[in-house]
Write a structure and sequence with these properties.
two-stranded antiparallel sheet; 17 helices; mainly alpha; flat; single chain
């Protein structure tokens, strides 16, 4: 090669062109559609493999009884609290904040003492009968809880350090928001459980069904993005999951009401929390309903002349819960997705391969459990002998005798005794 050719080949323009070619060769190629699909199915298979033992373990705990179900919910709550607090602490871990971790766990303990103490004293007051110190503990439960919280509050004030006030108050607020999200909502879920395992199992099954079917429809048919916060979610998955969950809810509610182990509330039998031997209530028994005139007119077009139908109210309530699990509960997941994006996280943890952390699995469940609590106590819960007895057990002996005499006089006057 001549000197002239060598000079031309080493010209600035040629050097730039060769560098551009090398950069293009070294630039990673975007994944093909086939690669993306294979990755999706690989992730789906991993999730399935770890979902089977989780579902099996949950069924085993249900079989063991309500006490172990409550322990499971508390365990999930504690792990969720830990995952969220790690995120907050990680941002300021280099600041060496005094008492930060100790106070977090202290406030978690106090919150659990208050909320679950409220559950026991209101629903199982007879648990405290017979032991004077337990009865006093129940009577002064709220006052004791207040002073326990006040101790943590005072400790936080004493831990404040100059030039770190803003960070410390930010994390103090963070701790209380996490307590609200984890402890309060898990407390409501346990309250649902005490009313009957049905009110925990059915809504949890609706969320799981919606999650699985939305994932399946999204992989197979997903084309249209649903929400910017979660780019992998699609309208096809959202709609397919909703219809599948509604159908599954109708079928599941038609099957579960047959089992007293699931529909009867929890009671204290003198030694342990057990499922009562109840008679199925109004919501689980067939009821006759009049068909509205407008619907009768539509049915008459097809030669159907129904004026009354016999249905179990639980079917209607099941559809309401399935609808919430399909349309509203996913926003718990969207909220969690936005939260992870704010902190540049893929998952809240890595406890469960293919699923992430506990919060990744419980984001929709917490929202669903809170809805079921509000719905059940607003539209379904009725006064029972057991609920009245819990109030009577909280009275002193003289007032119990007065109540007994007054009730006896009333029943005698009405000719019932």
């Amino acid at each position: 090669m001549s000197d002239e050719d060598s000079m031309q080949s080493d010209s600035p323009q040629n050097l730039r062109n060769r560098k551009k070619e090398r950069d293009e060769d070294e630039t990673p190629k975007p994944p093909t559609t086939a690669t993306t699909t294979a990755t999706k199915w690989s992730n789906a298979w991993t999730r399935f493999l770890y979902s089977v033992p989780m579902i099996g373990g949950f069924i085993l705990i249900l079989w063991l009884g309500p006490f172990y179900v409550a322990l499971l919910v508390v365990s999930l709550q504690v792990k969720s609290f830990h995952e969220l607090m790690v995120i907050g602490h990680g941002k300021y871990s280099a600041l060496d904040l005094p008492w930060y971790r100790v106070l977090n766990w202290y406030f978690l303990g106090v919150a659990n003492y208050f909320f679950f103490g409220e559950s026991l004293t209101s629903s199982f007051r007879n648990l405290f009968i017979g032991e004077d110190y337990l009865n006093k503990l129940a009577s002064y439960h709220r006052f004791i809880s207040y002073w326990l919280y006040l101790g943590g509050f005072i400790a936080f004030v004493l831990s404040l350090k100059k030039n770190k006030y803003k960070v410390q108050f930010t994390l103090f607020g963070w701790t209380h928001v996490v307590l609200l999200c984890c402890v309060v909502q898990s407390h409501l879920i346990i309250q649902n459980c005490f009313e009957g395992l049905y009110w925990l199992l059915f809504p949890a099954a609706m969320v799981i069904c919606n999650d699985i079917m939305a994932y399946f429809f999204g992989i197979c048919f997903g084309r249209t993005p649903l929400i910017q916060l979660s780019p992998k979610k699609t309208w096809e998955g959202f709609i397919g999951g909703a219809f599948s969950t509604m159908l599954f809810g109708l079928l599941l509610s038609s099957w579960m009401y047959q089992f007293k182990h699931l529909i009867c509330p929890v009671e204290y039998d003198g030694s342990a929390l057990v499922i009562s031997n109840c008679q199925p209530g109004y919501v689980f028994n067939p009821q006759t309903f009049s068909v509205p005139s407008g619907i009768q007119a539509i049915l008459s077009i097809f030669g159907i002349s129904w004026t009354e139908v016999i249905l179990r109210p639980i079917h209607f309530h099941g559809l309401i819960m399935a609808l919430f699990a399909s349309v509203i509960a996913p926003f718990g997941g969207f909220f969690a997705s936005g939260f992870k994006r704010a902190f540049n996280l893929k998952d809240f943890g890595d406890l469960i391969p293919g699923h992430g952390g506990v919060v990744d699995r419980m984001d929709c469940q917490f929202l669903m459990g809170t809805f079921v609590f509000a719905y059940y106590f607003s539209f379904i819960k009725s006064v029972t002998v057991n609920s009245v007895l819990q109030i009577v057990y909280g009275m002193d002996t003289d007032h119990q005798i007065d109540l007994y005499n007054a009730l006896g006089d009333s029943l005698t006057e009405r000719g019932l005794l």
